[in-house]
Amino acid sequence: MENFKDYEKNIRILLVEDDYHTQIKLVKILNRVYDDIVVAKNGDEALTIFRAYHLQNKSFDLVISDINMPIMDGINLLENVRQIDELLPFIFVTAQLDVDTLLKVVKLDIDNYILKPIDVNTLLQSIDKTIKKSFKRRFFATDKEKLYLNKELYWDPVEKSIYKKEEQIKLTKKEIMFLDMLCSRINQVVSTDDIIYTLWEDSLEIDSSISNLKNLISRIRIKIPNLNIENVYGLGYKLRMQHE
Q1: 147-239 maps to which CATH number?
Q2: Is the domain covering 4-139 a CATH 3.40.50.2300 domain?
Q3: Of the residues 39, 43, 81, 236, which has the fewest C-beta atoms closer than 10 A?
Q4: What is the pLDDT of residues 211-227, one digit of tens each?
Q5: How many angstroms separate the CA atoms of 45 and 102, rounded?
Q6: So where are the chain's domains?
Q7: By C-alpha distance, which of 198, 156, 203, 158 is closest to 181?
């Protein structure tokens, strides 16, 4: 297991800021600690970058974004990001935040917001606190924990099995492999390419593999109708936990 200092040094941050001077200032602040800073000038550009990285099976560890920006604002960016990754840490840096906006972003699960003018220590402390939470979630979760998908279903990561009310549901080898991929990245999109490569790595027929994947998902939905597998168009599939 890597230590926190190594993890912290190597995280990838997506910085979204439309004001050039503020953007330069933030990059200088962040580069004091973090090496990998990717910059976007509005939400639309940030979303394009985010999707491109995701399709390359690369990820960001944190998004720091302004709210009021042209073309696409920070809230729309966050809404779109949450369709792909519901766990990605998100910090807003903004000149003002009214009550209605605050309530909206809280529902979308942000980690913090910082008002401009930016206090350097406040920003760095907020980032440090946020990524420490991510580090603990990533490296200290035990494989022995059952992953409860809803009030009836849970996935056992050791046995690679899914249970409904303590009764194991019988699945084929490829169905298990598919669910294992989704459960290992719960509430996050797993790309169609990754799934196909893992399940049918020897297949040269992409159309046939896509058809096989759709049939496999249809069979799983018949066997487990209350399992929430979502198709995120153009990207892949996501298994969503339901808190009921």
Answers
A1: 1.10.10.10
A2: yes
A3: 39
A4: 999 999 999 999 999 99
A5: 23
A6: 4-139, 147-239
A7: 198
